[in-house]
């Protein structure tokens, strides 16, 4: 057990956790931020993607102990003043989701892509989303959403 | 995942000292954490080495590139210096796993784990890498011992990996369509004094293909690859591919790599 201090969606948090606590479980069980999903639990599906110090990571394969002093952003932290993030707007507009299970990870991963590549090609979008699996949409709407968001962000 | 003690080391001496008993080093955790969750591995202590400053970063000279053990794949892929000096290495790093794995996974972790389908071990063999540890220097040819096995001793920590700059080189990977791990990956490098061809994904551990090296030494061209006989002896046969198919893919990846040199 150790006391971990980190910032989650801009809020300073200090909590005692056991050393084997995963970031995904910490967010969901200790902070009730259940927008971060756990699908495969083995870093394949990407439903658990969050940002750590600005980079997208898989929270199911990250120890909270390893996040001491870090800034974490989850899907709950991207809307501002009740207004959806442009990426969320674009997913809604282009039907980039059906059941919604993969969506938080998709959105967080796609935002990281646009941070690093402002105007990605369709192929670059598909390559980037390799670590995010969607089992309903067939990806067409997702790719269209990321393209549209790129023109607005 | 069974519980363990997590400790951050601030220098390599401390890391080495902490690594007693059933302890291991933790860098990105992209292999070790899934292995621990699946109960394939269990440790009493994980020693975090990411806070050790000397283990991160890339140093380039005219003859070699030296990459700190805790440098992420994303940092290697994005390095302009690596892209200029050994572009194949940057391309390889950019093709490991997915972006989130590349943001966390490290070169030291990859080679210490020596997964039979990992990408970096092939670059180490083909680019005559030297693995610098806190105890000694190990030539890549002596480092990779077998499936998930290396020459590292208990408490020995990789500090950096130094690659020789070749005349030309390329990496071609045939990824498993589901896992994206290399079903077969071939790294080809032409040095002043020879040619090296390293194959990953095809057998229980990375290996050099003497057959391909000898035909390419005479004639470094894609057509020369066709003259080589690549045996399927000792190659993996599993639900993804038979040994015979893997032997075939080794040649086609070698051809592809040589053409893009």
Brief rundown of the structure:
Chain A folds into two domains: 2-76, Ubiquitin-like (UB roll) (Roll); 86-152, [2Fe-2S]-binding domain (DNA polymerase, domain 1, Orthogonal Bundle).
Give structural notes.
- The complex is a heterodimer of chains A (153) and B (261).
- Chain A has helices spanning 23-30, 86-93, 103-116, 122-128, 140-152; strands spanning 2-8, 11-17, 49-52, 55-58, 71-73.
- Chain A has 153 residues and is an alpha+beta fold.
- Chain A has two domains: 2-76, Ubiquitin-like (UB roll) (Roll); 86-152, DNA polymerase, domain 1 (Orthogonal Bundle).
- In chain A, helix 2 crosses helix 5 (140-152).
- The relative contact order of chain A is 0.17.
- Chain B has 261 residues and is of the alpha+beta class.
- Chain B folds into two domains: 5-164, Uridine Diphospho-n-acetylenolpyruvylglucosamine Reductase, domain 3; 168-259, CO dehydrogenase flavoprotein, C-terminal domain (Enolase-like, domain 1, 2-Layer Sandwich), CATH 3.30.390.
- Helices cover 34% and strands 25% of the residues of chain B.
- Chain B has helices spanning 12-18, 32-37, 73-78, 80-85, 87-94, 99-104, 107-113, 120-126, 140-143, 210-218, 222-226, 243-259; strands at 5-8, 23-26, 45-48, 58-60, 64-68, 130-133, 137-139, 144-146, 149-150, 158-164, 168-175, 182-191, 194-200, 207-208.
- In chain B, strand 6 and strand 7 form a beta hairpin.
- Chain B is globular.
- The termini of chain B are far apart.
- Chain A binds chain B through residues 2, 18-20, 22, 41-44, 46, 49, 55-58, 61-63, 65-66, 68, 109, 112-113, 128, 130-132, and chain B through 1-6, 8, 26, 29-30, 33-34, 37-38, 46, 48, 50, 74, 97-101, 103-104, 179-180.
Strand and helix map with partners:
The complex is a heterodimer of chains A (153) and B (261).
Chain A: E1 2-8, E2 11-17, H1 23-30, E3 49-52, E4 55-58, E5 71-73, H2 86-93, H3 103-116, H4 122-128, H5 140-152
Parallel strand pairs in A: 1-5
Antiparallel strand pairs in A: 1-2, 3-4, 3-5
Chain B: E1 5-8, H1 12-18, E2 23-26, H2 32-37, E3 45-48, E4 58-60, E5 64-68, H3 73-78, H4 80-85, H5 87-94, H6 99-104, H7 107-113, H8 120-126, E6 130-133, E7 137-139, H9 140-143, E8 144-146, E9 149-150, E10 158-164, E11 168-175, E12 182-191, E13 194-200, E14 207-208, H10 210-218, H11 222-226, H12 243-259
Parallel strand pairs in B: 1-3, 2-3
Antiparallel strand pairs in B: 4-5, 5-10, 6-7, 6-10, 8-9, 11-12, 12-13, 13-14
